[in-house]
What we know:
binds 6-O-phosphono-alpha-D-glucopyranose
Amino acid sequence: ESIEKGGYEHFMLKEIFEQPRSILDSMRGRMIAESNHLMMSGIREFENKFVNANRIIIVACGTSWHAGLVAEYLIEDLARIPVEVEYASEFRYRNPILNEKDIVIAISQSGETADTLAAIELAKSKGATIFGICNVVGSSIARATDAGAYTHAGPEIGVASTKAFTAQVTVLTLIAMIIGSKRGTLETTKLHELMVELETIPSKVEEALQLNDQIIKIAEQYKDVANCIYLGRGYNFPVALEGALKLKEISYIHAEGYPAAEMKHGPIALIDEQMPVVVIATKDSSYEKVVSNVQEVKARKGKVIAIVTEGDTTIPAMADHVIEIPETSEHLMPLLSVIPLQLLSYHIAVMRGCNVDQPRNLAKSVTVE
Ligand code: G6P
């Protein structure tokens, strides 16, 4: 087992550090930025269906559901098709309205999640086209779908999903770009810019991983907290949910992810000098709004751990801790902003003596409902 861990103390840490490679592997052969070329065989088969889809419904569970939320922003923005993101367990039991013009995208690392599989069967019975995004080749979900694309993250052993998430987001980004360019909603210059930027992501993830030592120091200060809030807006809202999920899964600290603006409708009541608030405040279209949200937290003496874009000076002047990540397009930011959150949860869990790779009560693959 120690050989399999490749020198890392845990599979989770190894998998976090594998992300430059797993992201690259998930886009490899599917894109040539130079010639604006995108290809994904699973989509090609159903290209007309995708281009003319009424709606895209994404079904998934856990971290895969968070990747689905990122895809909602991507597909609606780039391809202008309405997207709904559903917990597979809710979708399958609520008599959803579906027809032949709908496409259902099922996302699953293991390809074995019982609720996701049942949601697929239900959608099939209503005539929808099912597209799968799985990591495990030949898995039940991969076999149950009409077409699909694999994420090439390699085996993920740690129960808390890390590299599978970024691989899913990578594949979903490619899908949004393909549909957007076919539908004419994503103009060629913008498509080109995004492709060129996507190619730089593996090396920017590498840079973000260099923050490890800095994050260990922050983890030392917060390892004993009882609660933690994660805030983000836009593309970073699903990342806030994912950051909170990672922390609760492996460290057993109660954590909540919220869209930053929703804080005033509830979570703000929890904020006092004991409450750490992780804010994803990268430079994007909602940046100014997030600055106000940080001020609201500081006014109530909350401790702010901010993830910011390199070179930012506004948020660092307000926050208690600042983690700087490289600049990128807001469409691609989740691939970078999630990295420090994975590392923060990992180190806090290790410092608390938790079983990081096999947290209590959780399973890697949930094959029963
Ligand atoms: C379990 C795992 C999570 C995973 C979720 C969905 O809860 O512990 O890490 O995100 O299932 O799994 P899937 O294999 O369908 O992505």
